[in-house]
Design brief:
Elements (H helix, E strand, L loop, with lengths): L1 H13 L5 H20 L10 H13 L4 H20 L26 H9 L6 H16 L3 H5 L6 E2 L4 E5 L5 E5 L2 H19 L18 H14 L8 H14 L4 H8 L4 H4 L1 H17 L4
Antiparallel strand pairs: 1-2, 2-3
Helix pairs in contact: 1-2, 6-8, 6-10, 10-13
Length: 295
């Protein structure tokens, strides 16, 4: 079960873009939970049912943890079991029926429009790998993609003439997202000038390739984002998911309606998209304070 936990922690780091501190907290929570399951002679994740999880929560309460701390442990398990279900390690989610108390709204970190521009200009396009990297960054920001959606994109999924990409997101749900002119131009340059040079005669269905025609990995893209953000002098914790957050926020700041943003992000529930309205309100307050004569 330790390897499954490590897979989940890697997923949080690369796919979700969580900070090292957050991941360490999740790792501690899951380590304690795994030790509890081991004490109960539960050695497979599909054997840890709802009753086992409720026993764990009672155990935490007996240890004197506050309701807020117990709720945090439950949030950890909810995310973990969703991952296990998605990866087919379990057949049903045992946490789904356990209600999580509301403990406040955590807003994701975003880049300003200026910071996005600075970061994109920091990409070294002197190599074909750099040309590829810039095209990938333009698309992930321009279309609000998850990193897994970006690296798995195939040639057949993009139409530069019409200006859109076809994405297969969570649950194999298909959505069509428009591409901006910058993303189209950079991707066209990559396809015409760079891709075949990296392929070196090898055939590959993937739009963005690395060595031996294999797709760019999530880890490889994450490392490139970190390196580019450092080169740009951006001190924020920039991850691949930061671009998705920034995409949604910048659309709402520009006047896009919530339903349109929900559709482009591929959220099944609009309440998930509504978190970005809180960021936009903060932005509006700041703009009012900065520019209004009575601000």
């Amino acid at each position: 079960m330790d390897s499954i936990v490590q897979q989940y922690l890697d997923f949080l780091l690369i796919e979700k873009g969580l900070s090292r501190g957050s991941i360490e907290a999740y790792a501690t929570d899951l380590s304690e939970y795994m030790a509890f399951l081991s004490d109960k002679k539960i050695e497979r994740m599909d054997r840890a049912d709802t009753a086992a999880i409720l026993n764990w929560l009672v155990h935490l309460q007996k240890r004197g943890l506050s309701s807020r701390s117990i709720a945090r442990h439950l949030v950890t398990l909810r995310g973990f079991y969703k991952f296990l279900l998605r990866e087919k390690h379990i057949a049903a989610d045992p946490v789904k029926s356990i209600e999580i108390p509301k403990t406040g709204l955590a807003l994701p970190e975003i880049l300003t429009v200026g910071e996005v521009e600075t970061l994109l200009h920091a990409v070294d396009t002197a190599t074909w790998q750099g040309v590829r990297n810039l095209a990938m960054l333009e698309i992930i920001y321009g279309a609000g993609l998850r990193v897994s959606e970006l690296v798995s994109m195939k040639m057949e999924n993009i139409d530069l003439t019409a200006g859109f990409v076809r994405i297969f997101g969570k649950g194999a749900k298909e959505r069509i997202v428009p591409l901006g002119s910058h993303a189209r131009d950079r991707t066209e340059h990559w396809l015409k000038q760079g891709r075949h040079r990296l392929l070196k005669g090898i055939s590959s269905p993937y739009l963005f390739i690395a060595r031996a025609g294999k797709p760019m990995t999530r880890q490889g893209f994450w490392k490139m984002v970190k390196k580019t953000a450092a080169s740009a002098g951006i001190s924020k914790n920039v991850t691949p998911h930061t671009f998705r957050h920034s995409f949604a926020t910048h659309l709402l700041e520009g006047g896009a309606d919530l339903r349109s943003v929900q559709t482009m992000l591929g959220h099944s529930d609009i309440s998930t998209t509504q978190i970005y309205t809180h960021i936009s309100k903060d932005y509006l307050v700041e703009m009012h304070r900065k520019f209004h004569p009575r601000g």
